[in-house]
Structure formats: structure tokens, C-alpha cells
Amino acid sequence: MDRLLTSRQSLCEALQARNVVLVVGPDAMLIEVDRADGTRGTVNLYQAVTVDLLAAYGVQQPDHQRPEVGSAWLLHQAVAQILAESPGVSVERVRRSVSAIVKTVSQRALATPLVTRIAELRAFDLFICLTPDDCLVDALQHVLGEDHVSVSAYAPNADTSQPVDVPPLRPAFARVFFPLGRSASGPRVAIHEEDAFEFLYKFQEEAPRRAPNLLAELRSRDLLLLGCNLPDWLGRGFLRLANESRLSLQERKMEFFAADEHDAGLNSFLSRFDPNATVFPWSPEEFVHELTALVQPADPHAIAPPPPPATPRPGLSPTVFVSYASEDLESARRLADALGRVGFGQVWLDKRQLVAGDDWSDQIGEAIEQCDFFMPVLSRNADRRREGVFWEEWRKAVSRAMRVNDAFLLPVGVDATPPDRAGYDRIFSGFSVGFRELHLLHAPNGVLSDDGTKQLEARCSSFKGERR
């Protein structure tokens, strides 16, 4: 549970930085349709495609309605069944049928609830669609407008003069890439497992030449796989394609997964060889609900402005925001008093600055955006807390620190044990993992040592000199 919590925090931070590529699979392609009894219901697009495809070739539908965990996708299973029971039917004929039926069933959809919610979140600018339908494209075009959605697709042996790469990032612009083919572009789509293997193999071979922008973004950003239920061989191949280095190397890059059932084979592989991978135990619907909680939906027609610059303040002394768990209030007060004595101008401590009637979130958010330094108070009390206002304050400060080309975070430990030897589990993981790489001050019970006092005095003097 702790790992899931810290991974959720890391995902939140990556989403705030808009550093996540969303990979969408068949389990996320839910559509609303009119049933035969006149009611309206939600089905998986590829369940409906499979029913029509098997009927077109006179093949009886199997009893199970979805693939076994870690096995071939539902469409791939249906195609394999058709080819096994209809030996005279060519693969190319089935390929054309699949492409046509996908387009027909998609057009029958009254709504696409899951991908529509994803498009409305405005949290992603690059999408990898592992299915050949245009449900995601249509949803994005509805939210952003057709001129703000770029679509490209890959297929082996296709016309090499056709564009494959994604364009560079632009504000309020979404890019969608189909690595396994797109029905709207023709019948060259992957319809069974060997097809998918060949598409990925050839793409890996051609991508450095035909899709350098896409390859660079896949290998430098975090991945979020939604509704993919990847067969283990496909999962391993796709993840290796998206990583420039071996999966077993300790890198900052992380992959996030969402699945309602765990694939024991793939998960075992990841736990042994990819230290940065996490499988969240949620269905696609549950995961989108979590994303909605992490990302506030944006105005479909608005471009998010950059954060406002800090308002210049009179005087030369730097300001500092002290953030702490409530159990460490007394230590935080002693620290605040000491900071005033060493040369800081305004020391922002919420118990002192907030008064009855203040809007807490606005006041604190503005203070973090405008302070010169941010001091998180590290302690075992804080490390034990799964929730707390200070976590949100630290997240905002870490986000701002990425925009400050200088020292901004001044972590200080208030336990008897120095913070670099305290072994904090939560603090030194997730979005605050970088704290351990900073110079950590030590002030047991909020009392600064002589050395810590001299360091902070030097910090203030240096800051005043720069202001002059």
C-alpha cells in the first residue's frame, strides 16, 4: 500500500508537470449503444466488433467474453479462431473485414464515456492508441477542435512518403499516434498477435529515421498505460521500445500501469527487472476516476497561462515559508523564531499568518509562489502521516523549485537523528524523493546548531547581495 501511495504521488507530480504519455488500449474503449430491448447500455467496442466479425464468417462465438489475463486480446483471439476454422479465408480478407467493422461499430456508438472524460481532463498532449478505432481522436477533436489534433499512424510496408512522426509540442494541441495501424487510414491494421509483433518490430527498426520526435518523447517521459491488459510478450516488447536503456537499469523514468486484473507473468517480470514500474489495482473506469481527482478539468477553449511572477517585495531580506506536520508545531515555532534572528525578513508560518475568515488554499498557494525560500520540516511525525496539509504544501514547493534556477528548498530535520541518517520512508520517496539529494540542515526539536545558524546567515547575506 505504501508503494501504491508513493507511486500515486509521483504520478500526480508527473501530471502536474505534463510529463506523461497516455497509452490507451482496448479495455478503455467503452461505447454506449442502443440495445435490442430499447434500453441504452455500455459495452466494450471490441466485444461488439468481435460479435460482428465472427458472425460475418459464420463462426460461433466462444463462451468467454473477454481474454484471459496475459493472453491475446479479444480481437486477436477472434481472428485466430476464424483463421483456424476457415482455412480457405485469407488473412488480408479478414484484415479488410476488421478495418471495416471497427469503423461501422464505432459509428453506431451513441457516446464514448471513458475516452471523452480523458479528453476533457486536458492532462495529456501525446497519446499512443493501441487500437485502430478513432474514438479517442473524435473525443479530442470535440474538445479541442479538429485543427488542434494531429493524427499519425504506422504500418509495415506502407508508403514511406507518408508522415509517421508526431509534430513538436504546441500549446492546447494534442497528438495521437497509432503504432498498430488505424482503420481510418486503410486496412493495414494489426489483427492478430503475429501482426502486432511485426508492427512493433518494424517500427523499432524504422523509428529512428521516420519518427525521431516520437521516439525521443517516449524515451524521456513517463508512461501511463490505461486499459491495455498487455499480453506479457507485447508488454515487455513495448516497454523496451519506450526505454532507451535496459529496463533493469536504475533510471528516473517511470512507467505507470492500470489494470483491473493483474497479469502474473508480466508483473513478475516487471518486479524483477524494472524497478520503476507500478501496477495499480484499478479498472480503467476506476483509474480515470483517480485521474479526475488528480487533475482539475480545464476549460476546453482556454490555454493555461504560466504561473504569475512573484510580486516584488520591499526590502532586501529574503522570505521563507516553514511547512510542517501539526505534531511538530512547537519545533516549527522555534525554527521560525531562529530564522528571524539569522536575517530572514518575513517567516511564513501558517498558525501565525492565517486568521479567521482567510481562504486557506489561496493564502498558502500565494505564499508558496512568492516566498524566496521554502523550508520543509522533516521528522518521523511527518513520515508516519499518510495524509496532511503539509504534503500538498511540499508538492507545490517541489513543483515551483523546478522553475527556480537557484537554491529554493531548505529541508531541515527536527528529530534527534540527523535527517540524512533517519531513513524516512515516505519523505524520501514519491515527489519528495529529491529532498535526500539536497543539503539537509539539522535542528533537533527546532533548535539550530551553531553551524546551521552560520549556514543560514550566509544564505541570507548572499541573497541580500544579489538583490543589491
How would you characterize the overall build of this protein?
With 468 residues, the chain is α/β, with parallel strands linked by helices. It is built from 17 helices and 14 strands. The strands form three sheets. Strands 5-6-4-1-7-8-9 form a seven-stranded parallel sheet, with helices on both faces. A five-stranded parallel sheet has the order 11-10-12-13-14, sandwiched between helices. Helix 5 (113-121) crosses helix 6 (135-144) and helix 7 (193-210) packs parallel to helix 9 (232-241). Residues 66-70, 297-314 and 351-360 have low confidence and may be disordered.
Overall pLDDT score: 82
Strand content: 5-15%
Shape: elongated
Determine the fraction of residues in helical runs and give it as a percent range.
Answer: 40-55%
How many DSSP helices?
Answer: 17
Low-confidence stretches: 66-70, 297-314, 351-360
User: How are strands sequenced across the largest beta sheet?
Assistant: 5-6-4-1-7-8-9
Protein structure class: alpha/beta
How many distinct domains?
Answer: 2
Measure the end-to-end span. 50 Å
Radius of gyration: 26 Å
> In this structure, how is the largest beta sheet organized?
7 strands, parallel
Number of strands: 14
